[in-house]
Q: What sequence folds into this?
């Protein structure tokens, strides 16, 4: 064989391999662009959450061979929790075909993406956080603050305090202090606490802790003077362990401090040491690794050496389990959409339809191996939060223990406030309110 | 501080306007046709905004010799002022909001420039930190600035000037490009005018400047005002054209440092140095990250990859500065002179 013919033959066979391999590789894949953060100040949350998410996607691929045969793929783009990096990642990853949904786990990045994902028609999932008013699907067709938005979280916390006091009518005359992080995130719930205080007759005092929250002596002295019945900790990062330690220093009982959803992880209490013993925090997903789905991940994914967490003791931690629950919600939305549109790679708009019909009742949650990991979800085209229940967990010095039933926030009370805010946004942006018919019209390519 | 870079006198030099005009023709005529959305959204828009901020800071630091760490604060002031003018003043065209935002930033710049009358060098730099902390604190503290939005994050308005909407990535790119070109041109005219020479005189020797009759205090404050005006408009571009959301936390001290690094790496007292510096700071990490992801993506997770990119970038910056402490603009001049020389001797 001459040199030239060797090359010719090689080129021909290469062309054949490519022509055979390419369509097969791209035919049935659903892609998750992950704007993750594994370095920077919030790396602890990022590694746990994205680790859990990837672990669940891996579980579906290894155990089931994908969702109805459609393999799940993903890649990671490091954002360091910075908005401009998140935007760059968005532009980089969106060119990939078959994107299912975006999950940045960052309020700032989510805000910067709303216009973009709405134009590109791919859902944006902000589980447990995000813009409260994006719950209103009439105005935000592609944004999903699944399970819990900041207002529901507030309502859930107040309901929990009421249950500790023996009923919602017992709140009258009580005093609650909210210690919040001095940032947009921390301030988001100020008006809703005022509103609930008026409605239920308790007094509320809201005290700001300047970012990052290393120094809280004066705030806690104020709290000691005020003698509140409960302190709500709306913290973030280093602020949380410092709050717990300072509370002990000034003699405020830790079991009367209730943490919000970003003050509820192991990373928040372990640095506080013994000071955190007895501290309670809200959560949408219980921690621990006893749930069947977590066990399967340990067996199937970590067993195959494909686990994402380097430190295996973090399996079943708050952020890891949140990642797993987020994985369940995303995968089930795809499953719902596949039943309608076919077992194939879906468009972003079809996945949006899937999220808008995502109904997991407790029986279904149990079938998924997640009984007691989270309660249920019931998303509709105009309610993008999905009426998720919350629960409360108490830190015993080693692990979190669930100490309440699943509690429902006061959705009826919150809905008009959310609608008003969303309508104001729609007016500002010139957005026409969507109807049920609009929600059923789906772009298929 | 360095002297202004000047062209090599004996080399045959093309008319000065040729290169910028060719670049502009390319930027307006060719780039919109061939660019991808990634190019505009992730590279060109931040590049334009940061270049303009670099031009602004270079007037203050490079030309007038006043070190400032408050650039991000002036960007924030510009962005929030433009948002509020646009929101609250009925019938004010967008370009009017942007101009007034620049004026607001300039006013804040003058206020925080007052210490420069007494303080110099590092002491002044530290006093400009006050601007950095104060503006960010005020924007977070008073929700009026963000139209009482619960989280303090705001959406940018639609970009339209006299009925013509700059929609989409290309539209916003052209919008930003136009503003940056105009302001850069004005900045260029300024630094080659008598005022620019006054700046340099004060930078090089304040006492001598005073003796030859330059009004030192007035000139310093003027430098603060003009610089803040330009940086404020850069903030508007950053918020309205690039990210399309405004959030005080996005304008933190890191951003101020970033702009300072841009002019140091690009070349102090050089208009085009700001563009070189911004290109290095914006484009280079992205190139590295894509290259790193392409070559090593399967070996490392994204965190390790990102860390290694930072190390490489840091090493490269050190290397650049050792090779040419006067920045990329000076490096570029040298390269160009050598090329011209080589071309002449053939």
A:
């Amino acid at each position: 064989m001459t040199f030239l013919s060797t090359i010719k033959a090689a080129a021909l066979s290469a062309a054949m391999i490519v022509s055979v391999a390419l369509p097969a590789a791209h035919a049935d894949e659903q892609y998750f662009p992950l704007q993750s953060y594994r370095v920077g100040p919030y790396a602890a949350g990022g590694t746990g959450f994205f680790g859990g998410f990837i672990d669940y996607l891996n579980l579906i691929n290894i155990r089931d061979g994908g969702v109805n045969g459609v393999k799940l793929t993903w890649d990671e783009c490091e954002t360091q929790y910075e908005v401009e990096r998140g935007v760059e990642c968005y532009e980089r990853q969106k060119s990939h075909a078959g994107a299912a949904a975006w999950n940045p786990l960052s309020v700032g990045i989510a805000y910067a993406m709303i216009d973009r994902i709405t134009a590109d028609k791919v859902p944006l999932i902000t589980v447990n956080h995000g813009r409260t008013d994006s719950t209103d699907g009439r105005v935000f067709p592609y944004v999903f603050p699944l399970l819990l938005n900041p207002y529901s979280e507030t309502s859930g916390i107040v309901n929990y305090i009421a249950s500790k006091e023996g009923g919602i009518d017992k709140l009258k005359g009580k005093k609650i202090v909210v210690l919040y992080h001095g940032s947009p995130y921390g301030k988001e719930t100020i008006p809703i606490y005022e509103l609930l205080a008026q409605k239920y007759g308790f007094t509320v005092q809201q005290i700001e802790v300047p970012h990052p929250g290393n120094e809280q002596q004066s705030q806690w002295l104020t709290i000691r003077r005020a003698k509140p019945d409960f302190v709500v900790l709306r913290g973030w990062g280093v602020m949380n362990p410092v709050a717990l330690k300072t509370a002990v220093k000034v003699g405020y009982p830790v079991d009367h401090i209730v943490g919000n959803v970003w003050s509820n992880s192991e990373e928040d209490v372990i640095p506080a040491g013994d000071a955190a013993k007895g501290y309670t925090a809200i959560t949408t997903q219980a921690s621990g690794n006893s749930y069947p789905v977590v066990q399967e991940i340990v067996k199937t994914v970590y067993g195959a050496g494909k686990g994402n967490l380097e430190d295996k003791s973090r399996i079943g931690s708050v952020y890891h389990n949140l990642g797993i629950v987020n994985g369940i919600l995303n995968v089930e939305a795809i499953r719902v959409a596949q039943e309608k549109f076919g077992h194939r790679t879906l468009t972003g708009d079809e996945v949006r339809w899937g999220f808008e019909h995502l109904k997991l009742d407790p029986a279904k949650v149990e079938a998924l191996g997640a009984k007691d990991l989270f309660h249920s979800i019931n998303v509709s085209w105009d309610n993008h939060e999905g009426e998720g229940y919350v629960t409360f967990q108490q830190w015993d010095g080693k692990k979190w223990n669930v100490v309440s039933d699943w509690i429902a926030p006061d959705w009826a009370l919150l809905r008009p406030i959310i609608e008003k805010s969303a309508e104001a946004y729609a007016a500002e942006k010139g957005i026409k309110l969507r109807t049920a018919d609009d929600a059923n019209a789906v772009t298929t390519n | 501080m360095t002297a202004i870079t000047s062209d090599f006198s004996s080399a045959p030099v093309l008319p000065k306007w040729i290169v910028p005009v060719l670049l502009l023709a390319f930027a307006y005529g060719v780039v919109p046709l061939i660019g991808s959305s990634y190019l505009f959204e992730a590279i060109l828009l931040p590049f334009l905004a940061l270049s303009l901020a670099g031009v602004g800071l270079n007037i203050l630091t490079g030309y007038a010799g006043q070190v400032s760490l408050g650039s991000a604060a002036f960007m924030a002031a510009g962005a929030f002022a433009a948002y509020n003018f646009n929101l609250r003043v009925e019938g004010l065209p967008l370009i009017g909001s942007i101009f007034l935002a620049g004026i607001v930033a300039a006013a804040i710049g003058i206020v925080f420039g007052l210490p420069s009358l007494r303080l110099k060098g590092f002491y002044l730099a530290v006093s400009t930190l006050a601007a950095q902390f104060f503006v960010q604190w005020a924007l977070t503290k008073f929700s009026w600035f963000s139209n009482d939005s619960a989280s303090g994050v705001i959406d940018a308005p639609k970009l339209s000037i006299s009925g013509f909407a700059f929609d989409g990535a290309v539209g916003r790119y052209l919008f930003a490009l136009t503003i940056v070109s105009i302001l850069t041109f004005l900045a260029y005219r300024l630094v080659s005018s008598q005022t620019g020479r006054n700046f340099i005189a004060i930078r090089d020797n304040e006492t001598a400047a005073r003796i030859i009759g330059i009004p030192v205090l007035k000139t310093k404050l003027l430098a603060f005002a003009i610089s803040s005006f330009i940086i404020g408009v850069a903030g508007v571009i950053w918020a309205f054209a690039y990210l399309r959301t405004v959030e005080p936390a996005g304008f933190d001290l890191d951003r101020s440092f970033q702009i300072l690094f841009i002019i140091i790496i690009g070349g102090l007292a050089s208009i085009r140095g700001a563009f070189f510096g911004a290109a290095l700071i914006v484009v280079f990490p992205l190139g590295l990250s894509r290259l790193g992801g392409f070559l090593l993506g399967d070996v490392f997770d994204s965190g390790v990859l990102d860390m290694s990119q930072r190390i490489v970038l840091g090493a490269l910056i050190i290397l650049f500065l050792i090779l040419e402490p006067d920045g990329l603009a000076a490096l570029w001049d040298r390269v160009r002179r050598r090329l011209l020389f080589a071309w002449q001797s053939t």
